[in-house]
Amino acid sequence: MDNLISNYHPLTETYSEMADPEGGLRPHWSPMINRLNAYGAENISKRWNRARRVIQQNGVTYNVAESENGISRPWELDPVPLMISPDEWEVISAGLVQRMQLLNRVLADLYGEQKLLKNGTLPSELILANRAFLRSCCPIKPPQNQFLTMLAVDLARAPNGEWRVVKDLTQAPSGAGYALENRIIISRTFPTMYRECRIERLAGFFSTLRNRLAELSPRKVENPRIVILTPGMMSESYFEHAYLSRYLGFPLVQGNDLTVRENQVFLKTLGGLRQVDVILRRQNDSDCDPLELNQASGLGIPGLVQAAVSGEVVITNALGSGLAETPALLPFYPMLCRHLLNEEPRLWTVPTWWCGQNLEMNQVIDNLDDFVIKRSFSGSHEHPIFPRHLLPEAREKLIGRIKDDPKRFIAQENTSLSAAPCWRDGHLTPRHSMLRAFIVATRTGWKVMPGGLTRISSKSDSTVVSMERGGGSKDTWIPARGQVEKITLLPKSGNEMELSRGEDNLSSRVADNLFWLGRYIQRAELQTRTLRTVLRRMTEETLPDGTPELPELIRTLGVLTDLSRKNTPIKNPIVEMDRTRAFLDSVIFARNQPNNLYAALNNAGKIGAMVRDRMSMDAWRILDRLARELQAATGEDELTDIADMLDNLLVPLSAFSGMGFESMTHGYAWRFMDMGFRLERAVMSAMLLKELLTSPDPYEAPMLDAILEIGSSSITYRTRYQSNAAVLPLLDLLVSDPSNPRSIAFQLELLNEHIRELSNLPRLGQLTEQIQSEELVRFVEDFDLSMITAFDAEGNRPRLAEYLERIIDKVQELSILINERYLSHVQSTSKLSTLVGGGS
């Protein structure tokens, strides 16, 4: 049997989480290490490779604002959890409870009587000159004077084994959702090990959080409306916001989804305004209200502070609570603990000095290499400075900065973080680690998460564990003393639940995003089908003149992607292969084209991320596969390889459409997505037919076959007519036949049905869009196509062109009407790219 720890070498001068000072295994690690040994290195690696694919498919990401593209990267998770003994966890939990009490007392005083400032216990410049101190929030009185509903604390273990506080996160503490996702992934990857180790569950913590939020409602109603406020998908932890929204069952909203009327907060939904009782905010204090706080913020809700003052809504954590996470307050907390609680700290802070006091400043400068230098106040994006690594010139410059403005700097003891075993290249190796622990305050006590988010360094010689600087994460396991308490967030009795089939929490912004998601998915599908038809003809073993329809197909592809104006016609695509290949690369891969295939799939992925709390995991995985299929191909591939890629793309594109129809309840959310899908298919189908049939090629027969192939209707046509394709039956099949899912008539019938259902929403004024959609259905289904298929003297079909143009115009007008009635007050997703298919 493999022994995974035989070659494990703990780091020197560092506390080893797994190994004791004699090199033996700490007792609480034994069950897990024994099971890992039983698995063996090969089995562990195999299981973990599967788990990493799940992380990617689930879209678990951390957004790094300073990355090259300013977007997300996959979440880094290590398969070996951090083990903490039950006895040690009791000590940590007691310290967290005390920390929560202390920080609440400090906030209550600073936003209340301010005795700590009046009697000189705290220097006034730490508070009154602090941007985190929000004077306009002083009148806010949280329920039970509890400013913090949830607290996160970063803990580091010193070389002597003691846990110390490095940082408090009080305004919008992040990481709990990632901790839960880590637990789910690890427990499913190693289910036997998880059961044998008898690990405390996390669900009870989230159940307590959900119940507490409901208790905070100022309206004593059975089902208060609770929302999670996010700054949006560019937030570092947006994945967590969407994840918690799904897990807790609360709508995920942005600032423009909410409005304040007469000191009450309302969610703007398709059905009208719905009063919000509690806001679990995931954005910074200053961004929450542009009237009272940061005027430059576009993320907040005007009037929110006044609504909180009036008590009509409860915001948690309370606005202004970010003051408690001011780094310069850390050295004062031990003294404050004695002063406010009459207790010694149970969790000591990492030794910290505020340079705003002469004695401390001189001590820091004299012993600079022993410290890590940080900014005194929150909100600074500067990384910590390690003076011992600075060159002499940079060191002197740092000293000058400290002396010029000492109150802006703190110094923390350069503690060597403990090291935990991590899985690297088939064996265990130590990495520095830090624990983020979480606690929720209830009406009568506190609930500590039995675990947390452990962060690890990327290299053994680095103590940097932050995710934005390349660190990874671990699950945190606390073995249970007795039986593991089995807790679920599902209701125990369905008989006590009020039944609901409504969607009264669907905001206009979400409806807008779903509408455009449908449009981009269908745009990508039709472009893919057209491209595949072109590439099949280019890779067939035929003479150069064996595909006379090819030039027109390529020209039409340029029209559908808005590239025709930038390119002169390619009269012989196979002979002019270099030009043809360059054009196809622009249509498929170019990142600077707003209407090509890459743009359609990229925009679909962006919008999917905006509404991922509304999407099933299966639907999200399909979007992820779409992105990976296109990214795997390049302009360097052979045409046959690109044709295979297009075939592969059509599978998830079709699957997404089917998933939406089968997996989403057919309420307003689904209807808006399907309306976007149907509008785009109707417009682009009409454009395709107009370009290919109104000025016919002398070789029309192969062109008709190509149209049937693009419209996925070749088999239906052959079954019906058992003859070569002809214009009139083709138009009947692809335009007027309401039984063909690919026909324009079919799209318009479904659009009309959706609009009829939307008429039930409480909107004022005449439903012009309903009248127009009904007229459009009759126009297409009742029209005699035989009247417009004849040629004129010049060999064109002008009446067919006029007919199809009219359909395009009418559908575009219908799109505008839908946008103006339901979506016009949100920032339109259509700004992501220029619209090819017309409309708003």
From TrEMBL:
Q: Which Pfam families match?
A: Alpha-E (PF04168), CP_ATPgrasp_2 (PF14403)
Q: Which residues form the Circularly permuted ATP-grasp type domain?
A: 81-456
- Indicate the segments forming the DUF403 domain, all copies: 506-823
Name of the molecule in the record: Circularly permuted type 2 ATP-grasp protein
Q: Which organism is it from?
A: Pontiella agarivorans
Q: Species lineage, top-down?
A: Bacteria, Pseudomonadati, Kiritimatiellota, Kiritimatiellia, Kiritimatiellales
